[in-house]
Design brief:
Length: about 400
């Protein structure tokens, strides 16, 4: 497969400024801007980094632009209210946290990492207005989605700083075009307005072509909401924020309707390999072979092969091993936490209230175990309908 064919198959192409996707088959230089608003990436950020890996593997020259400067302004995209301003020290600390994760994810690929604070901090305001601001129409900017949402009825409004963010990102692209001959910027579809700012500026200032490519927003087909959340909140790549065990379990628990897409987007498995996995999965869905493969492959990418093997082995033991002991009267919520079926008391309560907890294959919302729950001195506790989330509990 050519690069363009592979990216289409993986579902990594949404909007583009070039007419024919085959334009991607001739390697040039591209960049991805990485926000520094947190000290860790989330699983939602993984997809665009997988796009970086595919482009780099196909011979494109990759630049990763850490947002040391733009993060001091705040990206309004995807936010319904103003971001809190961060200090330079916080941004620098966040960059260091993200840098380590990116380095691990892109191991084996060639790329250059830069920080846009290095050039944005040297900008003079009057020069910026003359060189950049003069080339943007207020009419066009007011029609950008993030402005419309924030300025419309019921919107929280938008500051001049965040309104100007798109121009600053456009300047980034122009600067990189001049200094590194970068011809394409990539990003999520929610960044499209910012992506085309640089394309437009380069064409006006240089009378040359530059392009933008966005990938689709990943949506959980089962819930219809943006991908990347669990019952405990965001799923982080930092093992101190989301443990490797919870990370692995997040992928094990993805819905059947989405797992095929996620294998294409979040793993390096090829077309034939994914087809084999899905064929096996379709023959025995309760076994969740596709989810197991997905969990292993993504955990391997993020946390390393040793951790992935450990979690794979642990998952097998949890399904078939009788490792927990309880008595009638014990708290079901505490037991859910002890067995790892929930990661917080709030999450456990929500699962019980929604009917997502099963005792001996029957949905329950009881708060405490009863004598009749034990059959021959044991019971089966399960979260959801998947075998992988079952625990055998012995009577004390």
């Amino acid at each position: 497969m050519t690069l363009s064919e592979e990216l289409k198959w993986r579902g990594l192409i949404k909007d583009k400024t070039f007419a024919d996707v085959k334009w991607l088959d001739k390697p040039q230089a591209f960049y991805l801007g990485i926000d520094a608003s947190a000290d860790s990436l989330q699983v939602g950020n993984l997809a665009i980094l997988m796009l970086v890996k595919h482009l780099a593997a196909a011979g494109w020259t990759a630049y990763l632009v850490m947002g040391g400067g733009t993060s001091l302004v705040g990206d309004p995209g995807g936010k319904n209210e103003e971001r809190n301003l961060m200090s330079r020290e916080t941004v620098k600390s966040n960059i260091e946290g993200v840098r380590g994760q990116v380095t691990k994810l892109l191991r084996g690929e060639k790329y250059t990492m830069v920080d846009n604070y290095d050039w944005l901090s040297r900008l003079k305001y009057v020069d910026f207005l003359r060189e950049v601001g003069k080339h943007f129409s207020m009419t066009e900017l007011m029609q950008r989605d993030f402005v419309v949402e924030r300025m419309g009825k019921g919107g929280a409004g938008i500051s001049y700083a965040e309104f100007s963010y798109s121009l600053v990102q456009g300047y980034d692209f122009w600067h990189l075009f001049q200094t590194h001959d970068i011809r394409m910027q990539i990003g999520g579809s929610d960044q499209w307005g910012n992506l085309i700012s640089g394309v437009s500026l380069i064409r006006k200032k240089e009378a040359k072509e530059a392009h933008a490519l966005s990938m689709p927003l990943i949506i959980n087909k089962a819930t219809g909401v943006k991908f990347g959340k669990s019952e405990g909140g965001a799923v982080w790549l930092d093992p101190n924020k989301t443990s490797p065990h919870d990370f692995y379990q997040f992928w094990i628990n993805v819905d059947d309707s989405s797992v095929g897409d996620y294998l294409k987007i979040f793993t390096e498995l090829g077309k034939d390999e994914v087809a084999k996995v899905m064929t096996a999965f379709e023959k025995d869905k309760p076994n969740r072979f596709a989810q197991k493969t997905l969990a292993y492959e993504v955990t391997r990418l993020v946390h390393g092969e040793e951790t992935a093997e450990h979690e794979k082995s642990l998952a097998v033991k949890q399904v078939f091993g009788a490792t927990h002991i309880a008595s009638p009267g014990d708290s079901v919520i505490d037991l859910l936490l002890e067995t790892g079926l929930a990661i917080s008391k709030t999450g456990a309560r929500q699962l019980l209230a929604s009917g997502g907890i099963y005792i001996n294959d029957k949905s329950t919302n009881k708060q405490h175990l009863e004598v009749t729950d034990f059959v021959e001195d044991e019971l089966k506790l399960r979260r959801g309908k998947t075998l992988q989330n079952s625990r055998i509990i012995k009577k004390k």
